[in-house]
TrEMBL record, chain A:
Transmembrane parts of this sequence: 12-34, 54-72, 79-99, 105-124, 188-206, 236-259, 271-296, 316-338
Residue ranges of coiled coil: none
Main location, first listed in the record: membrane
Stored Pfam families: BPD_transp_2
Protein name according to UniProt: ABC transporter permease
InterPro entries, alphabetized: ABC_transp_permease
Record's bilayer topology term: Multi-pass membrane protein
Localisation: Cell membrane
One cellular-component annotation, GO: plasma membrane
Gene Ontology MF terms: transmembrane transporter activity
Source organism: Planococcus salinus
UniProtKB/TrEMBL annotation, chain B:
Keyword set includes Amino-acid biosynthesis: no
Subcellular location: Cell membrane
GO CC term (a single one): plasma membrane
UniProt organism field: Planococcus salinus
Protein name: ABC transporter permease
GO molecular function: transmembrane transporter activity
Record-linked PANTHER family: GUANOSINE ABC TRANSPORTER PERMEASE PROTEIN NUPQ, SUGAR ABC TRANSPORTER INTEGRAL MEMBRANE PROTEIN-RELATED
Length: 348, 336
């Protein structure tokens, strides 16, 4: 079996194993897995409205996945996508409510604010990694909590003690009447085009620019890159900044598209953490992220239908997602298994 | 409120919040000293909290006052089993340890909430009836079994001026247990052959392997210890602080314990000190509005203090913090 085929088989087998484990858990706890998965399917593709909402859910997943994948390609593990997304969400919503401008200026400005906020939140761990060799995983985890508490405090200040800001001005909104009419008034918005454009941007940066070449080189081998005359520290910081910018933009999707406001949060949104799953499943390639985001976005939104239609708690899908991550991460053992199976075939 | 009164009020509360953090941070020390990064502490704590509460609710009638303690054992076993998943993935399957830890976190909260909804048919459990006993004045005679026999005539520590009311009033036995465990962990890691082996597989697994130490087995044991301690910590948190289990019960305590471990420089006593300090920050962020001086500090600064301090500690502004050398790297025999 070729290497390429194995690389594709690992995610597929992981997804199947994840769904299988989910089915087993449903059986053991006394639910019908067939009913459960039918309800999941209907929750994703049931009617035009659910399809619209599923696509809406995929939008931030695309950007969160890109953020994680981009950092991974440069050899960095950005667990801080969650925090970068939260600050991006706040920044976009703040610009959305603070001023009223013509749409042509207001919308780009709000998006830019989210990008800058996310990039800044990625810059700190990047800088610490470059200057002090501090592991980015821990710093980004801590930055997540700082983001959560800081934005909550800021929301309280901005809203004068309330739990959420006002809704943003129409001029900053990504809302799409065209999509609303098409999908029976789902919240699907123009952000999906931005997210897909960013997929192309990531591909372009990685494959067609010197910067992308250097970033990947640093990801493969820092010493070799250094020896080849590349500025490793600069590349580490840039990788985190760009990754954070993607994540911040993901927050803007929620701020300007889905909710059109920002509310204080008791805990994380989970989008950033699911972004890790998206990136891993997509093998950190731009196109792979599209597939990963589509799968996890669909699962996540479709799961909301499971309690209504089959009486099964939505958390079953989270379990499935966790198991998928687990198997993708343990790709070594799946590869070993495939290799043994292939060898056996040849022996016969 | 005078300064002393503030201390009498805030110190017991800080220790109260620190107890679960200490245990979970110690779990992190064991795991990371053996070279296995354990981001999954949060998830292990969640499972501990869930199983602890569940056991307490189910068996409170049979065991009475002993229930919370037995619930700790149940939570310990459950989290230990979950930590085995992390061990298998990160040690045997050579998975990225951080990714595996993230999966553990997602899995734990999802599984726990799934079961809560299955069993209770709502988003959170009922409140427990049997809680840990609080000692308003603590002394040697309060030690279970031997205390009343040997020390019944010794006056309580809380009678000591100044430090008595500060450290020995409103004492939970769980806090005593947590602090004692920190010293036990220090002894085990630094004064026993087991501890030496544990540290050696985390620093240089190949050298340890050459000396005949079974790296895989040591790492498995270390991850299981971390699971057990995190489970106990989670169950203590749920049974002392919240009293029920829902989606927001643990809410980052595991990550704060991870921060305490790093801030404590991967040392058991350092981790304990950091956990106590973070406990102080937590109790100030909750009770600070009624304390002079602190009431002027915006709450958000107290909330983010532990995380900011951890970043500063890592950046080397507060002494050097050196992680175990082989931390996060799977050991593959024969690979240079």
């Amino acid at each position: 079996m070729s290497n390429r085929a194995t690389n594709l088989l690992v995610p597929i087998i992981s997804v199947l194993l994840g769904l299988l484990v989910g089915a087993i858990i449903m059986v053991v706890s006394g639910y019908s897995p067939i009913e459960g998965y039918v309800a999941l399917w209907n929750g994703i593709f049931g009617d035009l409205y659910t399809i619209g909402e599923t696509l809406r859910q995929i939008t931030p997943y695309l950007l969160a996945g890109l953020a994680v994948a981009f950092a991974f390609r440069s050899g960095l593990f950005n667990i801080g996508v969650e925090g970068q997304l939260i600050v991006g969400w706040f920044a976009a919503a703040y610009v959305g409510v603070a001023v009223e401008l013509p749409k042509i200026i207001h919308l780009p400005l709000a998006l830019l604010a989210a990008v800058v906020a996310g990039a800044l939140w990625g810059f700190v761990p990047g800088l610490l990694k470059a200057k002090f060799r501090v592991h980015e995983v821990i710093v980004t985890i801590m930055m997540n909590y700082i983001a959560l508490h800081t934005t909550n405090a800021l929301i309280r200040t901005v809203s004068g003690g309330g739990d959420r800001t006002e809704s943003i001005f129409e001029s900053a909104s990504l809302r799409s009447e065209f999509f609303q009419n098409l999908t029976d008034f789902s919240r699907l918005h123009y952000g999906i085009f931005i997210a897909l454009a960013m997929v192309a941007v990531m591909w372009f940066i990685l494959e067609k620019t010197t910067l992308g070449f250097e970033l990947k080189a640093v990801g493969f081998n820092q010493n070799a890159s250094e020896y080849a005359g590349m500025n490793v520290n600069k590349n580490i910081i840039l990788a985190m900044v760009i990754s954070g910018a993607f994540a911040g933009l993901g927050g803007a999707m929620e701020a300007l598209g889905t909710f059109e406001y920002v509310s204080s949060k008791g805990g994380f949104t989970g989008i950033g953490f699911d972004g890790i799953a998206v990136a891993l499943l997509g093998m950190n390639t731009p196109l792979g992220v599209v597939f990963g985001a589509s799968l996890f976005g669909s699962l996540k939104y479709g799961a909301l239908n499971m309690p209504n239609e089959a009486g099964i708690p939505v958390e079953i899908v989270e379990i499935v997602i966790a198991v998928i991550i687990f198997f993708v991460a343990s790709g070594y053992i799946i590869r070993l298994f495939l290799l043994r199976a292939a060898n056996k075939k040849e022996a016969k | 409120m005078s300064f002393l009164e503030v201390l009498y009020f805030i110190v017991p509360s800080a220790i109260f919040y620190a107890a679960p953090l200490i245990l979970v941070a110690l779990g992190g020390v064991f795991s990371e000293r053996s070279g296995v990064v354990n981001i999954g502490l949060e998830g292990l704590m969640v499972i501990g909290a869930f199983v602890g509460i569940l056991f307490n609710l189910l068996f409170a009638d049979q065991f009475g006052g002993l229930t919370p303690w037995l619930a700790l054992i149940a939570a310990m076993v459950a989290a230990l089993l979950l930590s085995l998943v992390h061990a298998v993935a990160s040690i045997s399957f050579r998975a990225d340890q951080v990714v595996s830890g993230v999966a553990i976190n997602l899995l734990a909260i999802a599984l726990a909430l799934y079961l809560v909804k299955r069993i209770f048919d709502k988003g959170q459990t009922d409140f427990i009836t049997e809680r840990f006993q609080r000692y308003d004045s603590f002394g040697l005679s309060d030690i279970p079994f031997i205390g009343p026999r040997l020390f019944s005539n010794v006056p309580d520590f809380s009678d000591i001026p100044i430090i008595g009311p500060m450290f020995f009033s409103q004492v939970y036995m769980t806090s005593v247990f947590a602090i004692a465990m920190a010293f036990v962990a220090w002894f085990v890691i630094y004064k026993t052959p087991f501890g030496l082996r544990l540290r050696s597989v985390g620093e240089h697994p190949m050298a340890a392997d050459t000396m005949g130490i079974n790296v895989t087995r040591m790492r498995y044991v270390a991850v299981m210890i971390s699971g057990a301690l995190a489970g106990i910590g989670g169950a203590i948190y749920a049974q002392t602080v919240t009293g029920d289990f829902g989606h927001a019960t643990i809410n980052g305590q595991g990550f704060m314990a991870l921060a305490a471990m790093i801030f404590g420089k991967w040392h058991p006593l350092g981790a304990m000190g950091a956990a106590l300090f973070f406990g102080l920050a937590q109790s100030l962020s909750i009770a600070g509005s009624s304390i002079p001086f602190i009431e002027d500090v915006p709450n958000v600064f107290l909330l983010i203090l532990p995380y900011v301090l951890t970043i500063l500690a890592l950046a080397g502004f507060i002494g050097r913090a050196n992680a175990p050398k082989a931390n996060g790297k799977p050991y593959i025999k024969g690979q240079r």
